[in-house]
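#struct-help
A.M.: can someone run this one for me? Single chain, 579 residues.
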Amino acid sequence: MSTNETSKKKQSVDNQIASEEYEYVTIPPDGGYGWVIAISAMLCNLICDGTLFAFGNMKKHLQEKFECSDMVILMVGAVPCGIYLLVGPIISGLANRYGCRRIIIIGSIGAASCTALSTLSPNPYAMMVIYGLFGGIFFGMIYLPSIVMVSFYFDKKRAIANGLVTAGTGIGMLSFGPLADYLMDKLGWQIGLLIFAGILLSGILFGFMMKPLQQQKVPIKRTGIESQIPSKVKSDRSVILNHEMTDGTYAPLLTTNDDVIDHSDLKNVSSFEVSNLNIPSKQSRIRTLSGTSRTSIDSAGGHRIGVLDPENATRPLYRKDALFTGSKQQLHHLSRTSLNSNPYISSKADVPPPITETKKKQSAYEAFKDILSTMTDFSILKNKHMLLICIGNIFTMFGYLLPIMCLISFAKEDLGVNKDVVPYLITVFGACNTIGRFAAGPIAMIPHFTASRVHNILLYIAGAATVLAGYAYDFTTCAIYAAICGFAFAPHMALLPSVVCDSVGLDKYTTAYGVLGLFRGVASMVGPPVAGLIKDHYKKYDLAFTIGGTMIIIGAFFHFCLSLVKPEPKDNDEKEVHV
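D.P.: on it. Structure tokens below:
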């Protein structure tokens, strides 16, 4: 090897060691520009959910155009609501790979295009594909990344920020429903949908406002003891683990693929302090650690808070709490303690090792694959609490969309309510739902109340009210039902993240969120068409409301069962492989 090549190689190694003296962190500002992010996310929710949930008002206009059954037309509205939940893992992976801003902008353009193109549909099945299938994918690209961005910018004030964001759904319901009815009455269903497509294009502006949170480069603080360790050992790729030697002392055990350490280099490490390290059992073992675990061990000395690669520091889904929208105060002790750990640390199983320039493309692919595989890991269902939650949500989602998509048709067609006032039933539902989303958190913090209890009780009330809705006889009784159901359904969205996090722990919350979304998505696509099938057969919606309400009550029962099943211990931040 030539002298120049040797010199360049040595310089490269020196530069690498020097670079590893620094790390990168993304620190949530908990305010400032974060409130711009929160407002932008709220507006994303408003246009996305507002358009989807206005379908109950659009239904009669589309049904008159296509001359189809209630079951078929309700499938047109249910498919996008289910699809945008089903594609959650894929959208999360894309957001982690390309960034939330880019995904929201693409989603806005795609959703607007599909909504506009659906006006050319010759039949409801074509609209089901254009607006339902493809549109649902793009709606998901607006919704989920906006939630992630809020979690990236907020930590201590996250519950407040997400309360503002989720209020966008309620505001969308109370305003877009009457707007859809007015536009389609005055201008026709095609012009009405084109106007909604124009509204969806505003998501481009909201997406541009989603400025990525920039990483900060900080020096790694070394303790006096750590400075005795050779540079190769200090490399973040070579995690130091204590291993009991025959003479009773502890020496580091390395997991490394490309560093070869001379055992003579370890002579000064035999006296390495072990007070801050986890002492293994007599059985020798190697622990495969993730970014979080490495940080935890380093943090024991109070000197490691970030990751070595700046790109990984800015990937939002690598944070284990990226999808958690609840309040820490609503969690039990173990989950709250886990969440209160260093908020800048990345998620344990997801962070790839530091990368070089030649490995950036591979790292980008890993950023997508890691999140997709994490959010579709069905082994989470081995947790009995998570299994009960998933089953409960299947039943709940059978009836969840019923008042949103069928209440107006029920009031107008079955009860003969004046067509001029019937669109405002969804306004009542949306207004009370917005109030309920804000009130859910404070109610859950009342002494002797928990997020789970408030969620379960109000979910049962929503089911009972839906059963009784079949006995409504005029606008007033329908409005009372809309108000009660809108308020009672709010905690199912506002508090469910806390219930799930308490059940599986924060380390597995991302997995639980993804898997739960798959179950909810499938059930969402089945519930409304079944209600339409019942209406087609019996010529009335009252039986559909009775059955839908019963499904919600059964869902609440499965959530009540959580208190009867002993919780499973949360996994540690490290996985152990015995050798």
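A.M.: thanks! The two ends are 39 Å apart (CA to CA).
D.P.: also worth noting: Residues 219-299 form one domain.
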